[in-house]
């Protein structure tokens, strides 16, 4: 799994746990819904750490809590 895929899965799991949709997360985080949907798009490869931080703020969690999710335990090496 790539880092981008792990980030997307983590946000999907967090939204499911809180019973909110991705556009609700965007509203809680002060970003546009189009930014949230763009992040979830498989064709988009890069995700800004600033956007991740805003989503974490909207979920009232730290970056450390976010990245401690199981999605990040077995990431593929990015250097080829």
SS summary, helix count = 5
Biggest beta sheet summary:
none
What pattern of helices and strands is seen along the backbone?
Answer: HHHHH
CATH A-level architecture: Orthogonal Bundle
* Termini Cα gap: 14 Å
Query: What structural class do the secondary elements suggest?
Result: mainly alpha
* Beta strand %: under 5%
CATH topology: 434 Repressor (Amino-terminal Domain)
Question: Helical residue percent?
Answer: 55-70%
Q: If you average the pLDDT, what whole number results?
A: 89
Shape: globular
Keywords:
80 residues, mainly alpha, 434 Repressor (Amino-terminal Domain)
Write the layout of secondary structure elements.
Elements: H1 3-18, H2 22-29, H3 33-40, H4 49-58, H5 63-67
Helix pairs in contact: 2-3, 2-4
Question: In words, what does this structure look like?
Answer:
The chain has 80 residues and is mainly alpha-helical. It has one domain: 434 Repressor (Amino-terminal Domain), CATH 1.10.260. The chain has 5 helices and no strands. Helix 2 (22-29) packs across helix 3 (33-40) and helix 2 crosses helix 4 (49-58). The radius of gyration is 12 Å and the shape is globular. The model has no long low-confidence stretch (mean pLDDT 89).
Write a brief caption for the model:
With 80 residues, the protein is mainly α. The chain has one domain (3-69): 434 Repressor (Amino-terminal Domain). 59% of the residues lie in helices and 0% in strands.
């Amino acid at each position: 799994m790539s880092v981008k895929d792990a980030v997307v899965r983590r946000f999907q799991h967090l939204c499911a746990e809180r019973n909110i949709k991705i556009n609700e997360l965007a509203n809680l985080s002060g970003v546009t819904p189009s930014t949230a949907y763009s992040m979830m798009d498989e064709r988009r490869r890069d995700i800004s750490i600033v956007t991740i931080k805003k989503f974490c703020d909207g979920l009232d969690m730290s970056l450390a809590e976010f990245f401690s999710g199981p999605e990040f335990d077995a990431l593929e090496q990015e250097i080829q």
